[in-house]
Write a structure and sequence with these properties.
About 40% of the residues lie in helices and about 20% in strands. The protein is built from ten helices and 14 strands. It has a six-stranded parallel beta sheet with strand order 3-2-1-4-5-6, with helices on both faces. A three-stranded antiparallel beta sheet has the order 7-10-11, with helices on one face. It is globular. The structure holds nicotinamide-adenine-dinucleotide and (2S)-2-hydroxybutanedioic acid. (2S)-2-hydroxybutanedioic acid binds near residues 214, 218 and 224.
């Protein structure tokens, strides 16, 4: 099955690379606006195929969406990333126009496509695609929670001084420095709540470092991260293409779930061949419910800046 990745920059190329390396898609089409850039990235990646042992065909195009026709999944990574000191929300002015136009082009050539939105501010960009693309709500999925949960597990393993494969945990709510909600109450090491091993100070550290995970990397790299974002997208694409029905926190259009409507926010969902198969309703503590509502309020304010 064919996957399109729009934006052949840092994140887009990383998505294509991880998808190809996992060998579950027949073709990945990279699209970029910069002349020759997607073609060059595709050729470079294809020259890793014999070395890395994959058969996925990677092609590139400068803006020719006819080459994306018949895509089962399309990933939108086009747009600008933040620089150190910026918030993701500051990117809305440039990225909203790009995301809206890209989504329209994708749907024109692949009316049945499932879109994964990556460009920031992601929750608002996912909402924009819902408002403008005409796709049903199960076919628009924002990527944030998969990445933020991976960062949560990284910080938990560091604090627990244990292998990452020992830990489990999930981050929901907004993909923003302040609106992320790492679910400490549900995080475990081999099924044992992490609260049995970590004190309040350690938990506060893990929580805060998870929330500012993207900002920390942006400060270190001078631009935002790409390896873990690409890997997170590849997990979501695989769950769709292989109908794995994995439970992944994603930014989805809510219609009463978690007390919110007409907004995209990170919630656990079953991701399979139909895109969003089901939003999973989990019990939150009162404090978590309050934080979820506060995150929703902030995202609503950003959504208010959209001209839709
Ligand atoms: N949701 C997440 O978890 C997450 C994670 C990492 C990055 N991001 C976001 O992803 C976006 C991309 O980040 P990056 O580091 O890859 O940036 P980048 O600058 O490396 O790549 C972006 C690419 O988009 C291309 N582009 C711009 N306008 C386009 C258009 N109209 N059509 C096709 N291509 C177009 C650019 O030419 C560029 O190659 C940013 O908005 C960033 O904030 C989100
Ligand atoms: O931090 C960013 O701006 C990019 C992305 O949202 C991330 O979390 O890595």
């Amino acid at each position: 099955m064919k996957v399109t990745v729009v934006g052949a920059g840092a994140v887009g190329a990383s998505c294509a690379e991880y998808i190809a390396m996992k060998n579950f898609a027949s073709e990945v089409v990279l699209v970029d606006i910069k002349e020759g850039f997607a073609e060059g990235k595709a050729m470079d990646l294809m020259q890793t195929a014999s070395l890395n042992g994959f058969d996925t065909k990677i092609t590139g195009t400068t803006g020719d969406y006819s080459k994306t026709a018949g895509s089962k999944v399309a990933v939108i990574t086009s747009g600008i990333p933040r620089k150190p000191g910026m918030t993701r929300e500051e990117l809305i002015g440039i990225n909203a126009g790009i995301v809206k136009e890209v989504a329209a082009n994708l749907v024109k050539h692949s009316p049945e496509v499932i879109i994964i939105v990556v460009s920031n501010p992601m929750d608002t960009m996912a909402y924009l695609v819902h408002k403008t693309s005409g796709l049903p709500k199960n076919k628009i999925i924002g990527m944030g929670g998969a990445l933020d949960s991976a960062r949560f597990k990284y910080r938990l393993a560091e604090a627990l001084e244990c292998p990452i494969s020992d830990v489990d945990g999930m981050v929901i709510a907004a993909h923003s420095d302040t609106g992320m909600l790492p679910l400490v109450s549900k995080a475990t090491r081999n099924g044992v709540p992490v609260t049995e091993f970590l004190n309040d100070e350690q938990i506060a550290f893990v929580t805060e470092e998870t929330k500012v995970g993207g900002a920390t990397l942006t400060k270190l790299l001078g631009t935002s991260a790409w390896y873990a974002p690409g890997a997170a997208v590849s997990v979501m694409v695989q769950s769709i293409l292989c109908d794995q029905k994995k439970m992944i926190p994603c930014s989805l259009l809510l219609d009463g779930e978690y007390g919110q409507s007409d907004i995209c926010l990170g919630v656990p969902a079953i991701i399979g061949a139909n895109g969003v198969e089901k939003i999973v309703d989990i019990t939150l503590t009162d404090a978590e419910k309050e934080k979820f509502a506060t995150a929703a309020k902030a995202v609503r304010e950003v959504n208010g800046d959209l001209k839709v």
